[in-house]
Amino acid sequence: MLRKKRRAEQLTEARAMQERRRAWTSQRESDRELNASTSQGPSVLQHEPHHQPRPEQQRHSEPEPELTVPQTLEEPQPSTSRGDTSLVIPYHPPRTPSSSEEDAEPTRSEKKLALFPEPHADDVANIKRTIVDLTQIEEIVADLRCHHCLSDNGLAMETPIRFGFAIKLVIICRNCGETLSSKFTSARNLNSVSTPKPFVINEAATMSSLLAGMGPYSFRNFCEYMELPGVHPKTFNKIAKRLYSQNEVLGEEVFTQAAGLVRQEHIRQYHLAVEENSLLDIAVSYDGSWLTRGHKSLIGIGCVIDVLTGLIIDGHVLSLYCHIWARTGAWIKRETPQRYDRWFQEHLDSGDCTVNFAGSSGMMEVRIAEVLWGRSIQRYNLRYTTIVSDGDSKSFNRLLELQPYGSDVLITKEDCINHVGKRLGAALRNLVADCSKRGITFGGRGYGRLTAETIRKLQIYYTRGFEVMGQQRR
Q: Where is this region: Disordered (predicted)?
């Protein structure tokens, strides 16, 4: 009986859905005919249904109203007479997509980028690079005429010197032997402190290969396959070391600029009467990440993000791995053990060792929190008094023990509502899995089942409930 009743309800709902779909289709066709008629002037359209009504519907159906399009764009007036069956439809001009784009609220990323000054695009626009076959350039040069002797024998091109990707092109007249031009294919980086000044193309190639995850030997293989001159591994490592130091300086400048913008936004939005160099308490979001999963990663990173603006204020990286130590040190220890201790001490004194942490991978996040909270006042005159975390209390408990701002300043902790909703969904999914093992069915198909879609909706409603409560408190 229950199956028959449920089947009848489903059939009734399906028929109602079909009727709504037919009505919607009929209304859409009527709107199309109405829009087509407006271009030719006002007219009266008779409503014709797309399907023939059933005999029962014909007996009880009423005459369809006429759709009258007025010449003026006035608001429709309600009819006072019950017998009036004409509907006055005002004409609305089509809305252009540009109006919706202009009225759209800017995204979070657009708001953050608007805080920074616009970069100078002239330098980027003037950069023109490509991979060129020099034989094609030689054929082009061979068809040119010398402006000294005006000979038609053409010009010759030579490449006597090469520094990585930078090649010196020398244009010589075949007839008089005059050198017409002699230039490198890349400019030198005049802002570099190195002597001699490095070529821009070599630094760009090294930086691009590092960003793509290629080391010196992988990059050399790539250049060999492409039949490019390439960069020697020693030169690659030398350029990479210089770029790393420059990126550290650039990162500090960007963090300092972001901290200054955070201070300005807090003062502007909260109307704070504070001096320029005075301490300012803010709420931040802190979390750590690792290079690989499984709590065995050799590299970890932690970032502090301002809650108000969403800008990254500071960050720090910890490493348990040094490539020179792992390769060269292992070879020296295996071949000449008596030289290993002296080499290792020289390696540490040189500053080339990238290992800056001793401990487990899970404790990297805690150690990074100590570093970031310990230098917030010295660098930015900011105090991170409220921390929004993902539920992990190890970093927060360590900060309570450390008391970086003294015993008078208390650091409070707030949980992210997204992570709270995530934990609810994980708990419900685990409950369904555990009960299914014991023979208790919560999930599956059917009404009232705790399906994956139901868990997702509950997670969303639970998260939005906290958002509404937070807005009401404000």
A: 1-110
Q: Are residues 242 and 226 in the same domain?
A: no
Report if pTM > 0.70: no
Domain containing residue 290: 237-415
Domain for residue 377, yes or no? yes
- Determine how β-strand 166-173 pairs with β-strand 162-163: antiparallel
Verify that 162 and 293 share a domain, yes or no.
no
Last residue of a domain, one of 372, 392, 415: 415
166 and 57 together in one domain: no
Q: Are residues 312 and 407 in the same domain?
A: yes
If one counts the domains in the chain, the total is 4
